[in-house]
Design goal:
Rossmann fold, 34% helix, binds magnesium ion, 7-stranded mixed sheet, alpha/beta, globular, binds guanosine-5'-triphosphate, 7 strands
Length: 201
């Protein structure tokens, strides 16, 4: 899919104030620093459409970006960010869960996992929660450039093994790198195929 336009629309802490349009949307979620905002920039070929930082906790709001004037990408704050105070952590978590349970325009979530790390409880629990709430999601393994060609498939295989302890089958997954552009076409055609299906229905 060719991205001919990608524009920031608005930031919100309240799901009720998100765009009223009925356009399909896709949201990026995962631990702080996993690379959600960087991935949005990589997919859209825009250097700083979404704000990124080496320090966790950069994205703090629900950010809508309109793509090709007919669908949305949504950048969300990370979960599991330990450096915020307990009370503000609760606010994060609450508006994240409220976004996912209330946003009817959401077509699918992308749960981002840093491919270097062993399966983390918080990610497994979040996917469990999505499952229980019948929210469709796929997985994106990020930062593939940080592993060697031999280590990368081993890490992914380990993750799949762990997932199969809880899931009947492995959800659709992608392996990406925001530095090299790996996985870009795969993620974009996945979205494009769903958008086409939705137009037909
Ligand atoms: P929060 O907004 O804090 O939740 O973080 P985020 O998930 O949006 O992460 P962000 O995109 O800001 O990236 C965090 C750091 O990881 C930045 O320093 C990025 O440059 C780096 N990074 C993100 N993706 C990649 C990648 O694919 N490869 C490499 N090498 N670095 C990456
Ligand atoms: Mg971010």
């Amino acid at each position: 899919m060719k991205i001919s336009s990608a524009e920031f629309v608005m930031s919100n802490s309240d799901v009720a104030k998100c765009p009223k349009d009925k356009l399909p949307e896709y949201a990026f979620i995962g631990r702080s620093n996993v690379g959600k905002s960087s991935l949005i920039n990589m997919l859209t070929d825009r250097k700083s459409l979404a704000k990124t930082s080496g320090r966790p906790g950069k994205t703090q709001l629900i950010n809508h970006f309109i793509i090709n004037k007919n669908w949305f990408l949504v950048d969300l704050p990370g979960y599991g960010y330990a450096r915020v105070s307990k009370s503000s952590k609760k606010v994060f978590q609450k508006f994240i869960t409220s976004y996912f349970s209330k946003r009817i325009q959401l077509v699918s979530a992308f749960v981002l996992i840093d491919c270097r790390h062993e399966p983390q409880k918080i990610d497994l629990e979040f996917m469990q929660w999505l499952g229980e709430n019948e929210i469709p999601f796929s997985i994106i393994f990020t930062k593939a450039d940080k592993l060697t060609k031999t280590k990368l498939p081993i890490q992914i295989e380990n993750y799949i093994k762990e997932m199969l302890n809880y899931w009947e089958e492995m959800p659709t997954y992608f392996v990406t790198s925001s530095s090299s552009g790996l996985g870009k076409e795969e993620v974009l055609s996945y979205i494009s195929d769903i958008n086409t299906q939705l137009k037909k229905s």
